[in-house]
Amino acid sequence: MLSKWIYPKQQVEAFGEVIVINDQQNNGIEVNRFETETAQQDAYYDNILYQSGKPYVIITQPDNYYLQCTPDLSVQAIADNLQVNWGIKFVLDIGTAYEQSIIDKTKPYEVTFTDLAKSEHVVDAFVIDDLGNEVAGTDTHDKKIQIGIGDYYVAIGDSITKGYGDDDPSDDISADGRNEGGGYEPILNNLLTAERGYPHNIVNEGVEGATSADGRFSISTILAEHPHALRFLVQYGTNDSDIWLPIPSGKGLHPGDPGYPGTFKDNMQQIIDAINAAGKEVCLAKVPIALADCSHCKPYEDPSQGQKNLLIQEYNEVIDELVGDPTNNISVTPPDFYSYFEVHYPDEYADWLHPNGIGYHSMAELWAEVLNQ
Q1: Same structural domain, 260 and 331
Q2: Are residues 219 and 338 in the same domain?
Q3: Distances in Å between the alpha carbon of 69 and those of 109, 202, 291?
Q4: Run of H or E including 319
């Protein structure tokens, strides 16, 4: 293997042998494999290339647990040390009734399997000789598992979207292994997959402390990071209602009205516009009830009359206004987390603002209910 490093006095271990690379070394080092321990951004690897002299193939796209919404799957591989007229045989769902194979004998090795069903798939790549026989060898076969054709969602919002307060680790990872880290997203993946019979990916892009203004400024970046996403699950408002620096609701206002710019409604409308412009679907959620001014403050005697909730109630009315505007193309009814947790918070809140493990499971169920309508 040839690997070029640029980093002062780094060490590489290869089969027990330690190689020291100084800051002037810019040449390749040749090893069969290497392991390193570096801090983030300490080093980079450039032009990694196998040069064992033996034929090999590596699937570079897609990776394990990849998921896309469209039915045509592009598969790419790198291979080298092949003899004349040798090539790569790509096989989809080997050993099943739906097995397909495509042979490519020309670099770059890339094929497309078309019209795939919404399901989990497996991709194999084999080095083959000029007669089409699979070539024996330790590196002449590669496999990628759980390649999904299904639905791809992205959840954006604050610490509640992130999953803060989730105290049940038993459901922190979805059954298919795609989503992890707690919160409602892995559970929602399981619920939608079980209901619909095909795979899902619910990516968690929640940010602790985020407001609708933060969402407005970050949405273009998130859209660029998830070009294949189908739906965006949007929930802001808990931090907008901060009693010391609240964001006005904008209830009843429209673009061009005095007082509209910078409101919750303005921010949410810009998020909606960006998602729609990207050809994706927007799904809004109502803001959950707060039990105090902050997560460590004295609790309200009557939560419905608490200062934060008076503003949250307006935010939720704004959400109704946004959903009711036909130009926003919102077809999914917002899950009403306010009404639900107003009743169930004694058993389902971790603190005065965030659900616990039971609460996140309930959020997943409420999302699944409206998404499956």
Answers
A1: yes
A2: yes
A3: 23, 13, 40
A4: helix 307-324
CATH code, domain carrying 306:
3.40.50.1110
Q: Which two tokens stand for residue 101?
A: 């194979």
**pLDDT, position 49:** 52
Residues 200 and 340 in one domain: yes
Percent of the chain surpassing pLDDT 90: 85
**131 vs 197: CA distance, rounded Å:** 40
Q: Tell me how far apart the alpha carbons of residues 210 and 240 are, in angstroms, rounded to a whole number.
A: 8
Q: Rounded CA gap, 157 and 287, in Å?
A: 11
pLDDT at position 270 is 99
Domain tally for the chain?
3
Closest CA to 107 of 161, 144, 60, 54: 60
pLDDT < 50 positions in the chain: 1-9, 14-15, 21-28, 30-47, 50
| Residue 137 sits in the same domain as residue 160 | no
Question: What local confidence, expressed as pLDDT, does residue 337 receive?
Answer: 99
Q: What is the pLDDT of residue 19?
A: 52
What are the tokens at 7?
A: 């980093």
Distance CA 242, CA 293 (A): 7
Q: Are residues 116 and 155 in the same domain?
A: no
Alpha-carbon distance 40 to 192, whole Å? 36
Domain boundary among 114, 149, 184: 149
Last residue within a domain, chosen from 49, 65, 82 = 49
| Res 293: pLDDT | 95
Cα(78)–Cα(19) distance, rounded to whole angstroms? Answer: 27
CB neighbour burial string for 91-121, b if at least 16 within 10 angstroms, e if fewer: bbbeeeeeeeeeebeeeebbbebeebeeebb
What domain range is 31 assigned to? Answer: 2-49
Tokens of 164: 């803060």
Closest CA to 287 of 186, 188, 210: 210
